């Protein structure tokens, strides 16, 4: 984006597919100097070929985070106007079936890496006295669904960090926004299935029957809900958070995200639980 003859710069994580890629393409088309990062060299090449300043960045690797930020600052004369924390995945499985390692992996990507990258960028934004930070959270950052405990916990944690950061940055010129999508078409489900296969033993679990249904659904493309939307709906909210003079603290995306935001405020806990349990059941039918 060009503002007062100055091109604004943005660093985005997880741009190999889905929301990250769509946001990178969209912001680049709007004139942003876009640094689109991914953790696999072949994806970085693909992003470079698309003119998106591909950058190697694995949020689970501190060295990779530091190298990527150094490279961006090198190419922008030490400035960065915006950071879009998008990289993430969902680890399915019942809470009691999650190993400490699986939960740790989930937090390394969705929370710890995101926190480390943000903390590294903040001094730059503080020096500039301006900046925009966006966290791609989820509807599951404020309501829970069965068999999503690891992902739920990681996105709740992300919301806690972002909300605290917004308070701590009051008056600095740096804004913090949470994007809270419901179901979006991307590689998210395919990657969640990989995490399931990696970390859950479905046969020896008390939840074997539920896992069997879950796996059937993972394998059928038709199981996407009628509420599922394209990545463009998320991109539009990110653009608002980065370009509008008055960015919002949170942006629900899709009908379920608005609906559950409303229900959690007005329903007693027991009634909300009942609905969330039904949604979980319907998802596994
Ligand atoms: N799709 C949905 O329904 C939905 C709903 C709510 C929120 N979200 C959130 O939206 C964000 C983007 O997901 P998506 O839907 O676009 O799914 P996606 O297509 O699976 O994209 C996820 C991206 O994150 C990257 N990633 C994973 N681990 C990483 C790591 N350690 N370092 C750097 N990048 C890493 C992936 O890279 P690789 O290709 O290398 O794995 C990929 O580029 C996630 O934070 C997700 O939680 C998605």
CATH class: Alpha Beta
Uncertain runs with pLDDT below 50, 5 residues or more?
none
Bound ions, cofactors and other small molecules, one mention each: NADP nicotinamide-adenine-dinucleotide phosphate
- Named at the architecture level, the CATH assignment is 3-Layer(aba) Sandwich
What would you call the structural class? alpha/beta
CATH superfamily: NAD(P)-binding Rossmann-like Domain
User: In what order do the strands lie side by side in the largest sheet?
Assistant: 5-4-3-6-7-8-9
Helix fraction bin? 40-55%
Structure explained in plain terms:
The protein is an alpha/beta fold. The protein has helices spanning 18-29, 41-49, 62-75, 100-128, 149-168, 188-199, 208-219, 231-243, 255-266, 269-284, and strands spanning 2-3, 6-7, 9-12, 33-38, 55-56, 82-85, 131-136, 174-181, 250-253. The radius of gyration is 19 Å and the shape is globular. The model has no long low-confidence stretch (mean pLDDT 96). NADP nicotinamide-adenine-dinucleotide phosphate binds next to helix 1 and helix 6.
Q: What structural keywords apply?
A:
single chain; 285 residues; alpha/beta; Rossmann fold; seven-stranded parallel β-sheet; 52% helix; 13% strand; binds NADP nicotinamide-adenine-dinucleotide phosphate
In short:
Helix content is 52%, strand content 13%.
Strand-helix topology:
Elements: E1 2-3, E2 6-7, E3 9-12, H1 18-29, E4 33-38, H2 41-49, E5 55-56, H3 62-75, E6 82-85, H4 100-128, E7 131-136, H5 149-168, E8 174-181, H6 188-199, H7 208-219, H8 231-243, E9 250-253, H9 255-266, H10 269-284
Parallel strand pairs: 3-4, 3-6, 4-5, 6-7, 7-8, 8-9
Antiparallel strand pairs: 1-2
Helix pairs in contact: 1-8, 3-4, 4-5
NADP nicotinamide-adenine-dinucleotide phosphate binds next to helix 1 and helix 6.
